[in-house]
Batch of 2 targets.
Target 1
Amino acid sequence: MNERKAWAINGFVGVVNIIVLLILGVVLLVEESPLGVVALVLGLVLSTGIFVVQPNQAKALIFFGRYMGSVRESGLWLGMPLSIRKSVSLKVRNFNSAKLKVNDVEGNPIEIAAVIVFKVVDSAQALFEVDNYEQFVEIQSETALRHIASQYPYDLYEETGYSLRGNTEEVAMELKGDLQKRLSVAGVEVVEARLTHLAYATEIAGAMLQRQQANAILAARKKIVEGAVGMVTMAIDKLKNEGVIELDEERKAMMINNLMVAIVSERSSQPVINTGTIY
């Protein structure tokens, strides 16, 4: 069931007409005219159709179980008499999910939470397609969050691809798209979806921290070695091009070994002064 515009007229015009009917009914009753009762009943019946719509709100009109339409414009209105009017807020709202414990694609337990920004765009669907659209948003948000979290690893080390920690923008867009499909039936538009918490579960946090530290050390060592090789190559080429000294293969290997040790070593190297010939 989709939203449609309900019949309604300006409420101030309706109030004036109701007052006129009530006054006319009283006058006719005083004159003992049977039309006085009709005017009074008609005025009282019309008065049941007066309602107020607040800004960023929609009123859905239900007449004896039948949906007659919705009024979105704020102000005083006269609608279908004897109808039931249900209010739906059209304001932008957010939902903060609880911290969920789920398994990522590699089976590692993680804690994850998100904030969902949404608004109602179809009052009829929000009221009549689901039992409680606010509760529906909460449940579907947690369901979508669990689904997305199980599709990616928490982090990538050597592999290429998406991860929850390394690709927050892409994960947020996919979460928004998945959630929008789930909430369309309730007439809800997802404005934004963002992860607010992401961490390893406490039972494996220590082990994963050690793994991250080990990977960081390996990455740093790799950079140091690459830089050291470049420096040694540059030093040997410079000595050769400028003709400072000619080194045979054995001495060249020794020089490379000494330079690599001096550059790569974590501690400062102790120089050894050779007072004799290098040969």
Target 2
Amino acid sequence: MAAARTTNPMLTWTTFAPLAALVALALTWGRDLNTVLVVVVALLLAGSVLASVHHAEVVAHRVGEPFGSLVLAVAVTVIEVALILTLMISGGKDSASLARDTVFAAVMITCNGIVGLSLFVGARRYGLVSFNAEGAGAALATVTMLAALTMVVPTFTTSAPGPVFSGAQLVFAAVASLTLYAMFVSTQTVRHRDFFLPVSDEGELLEDDHAKPPTNREAWTSLGLLLVSLVAVVGLAKVESPAIESGVAAAGLPPSFVGVVIALLVLLPETLAAVRAAGRNRLQISLNLGLGSAMASIGLTIPAITIATIWIDQPLELGLGPTQMVLLALTVVTAVLTVVPGRATRLQGGVHLVLMAAFVFLAIAP
């Protein structure tokens, strides 16, 4: 009798794609790329995105929810912070609003794009999707507070000219952001973990998965490859940014739209993971990813940039403009009305997606 063939988990495309992307990153960093290399880098970037989703799901399956969602959200945000700082250093005074534009784009993409797409996909397949209103509401409240404190308040302060914080105000905002984020993580993972677990239509908690969880070795391997994938995603997005900037300029779009494009690339892993969870009727996981990523984008980015301003001698514009504040207010009101019932249909998903489309359109035509 022939022996059954087994597949070595280390000999799959999800292992080779991020490693190849990392090699390509090392070879192309800081160099001008021709058209062929731009296409090759774009393909490797897409492969790294898909691989990161796979490895995030392996880790999430091993540690269970909501820890799995937290792993991906924090990993992406930490590398996103590194990308912002890199661009700020290389961009000089012209990048004074880069952190604000990137963080605001991340909030709009996560709270409207990821959440809206997940709601629409889940409701289209199951008709009516359920989630834990307590957990989603707590996450939304934290995101709202962080966004208002760090991006709305600076527009109205008077200690420094322009939409900026004074030194003391920036330190306060950074400490408050870290405190809120730490309190939320404690609530999500320790004190009220059940608020962030998937629920059935009757409100009963669901098991994360029925498949056998991966071994510790497989989980640690996937965690390492997840970090490699995320480094490759952000790094290759930076490598591709000159081509993106050229394309944006050739199309006559505002320079700030480059930040939106890069934010979309960086958040692709979480978007794909959230949509796949919604397709399995695990909408709470999708909301954990979407709202958790928005929270991490603010709660970790602002403190990191505050520390970085010690060495980066340039103004830091955090305050939003009128149009951006209106979009943020609409996002908060819409999200509250979506979260409160604990159930949603395709309509709620469609509303968030239209709001996401409005954000992208106004970023193109401000």
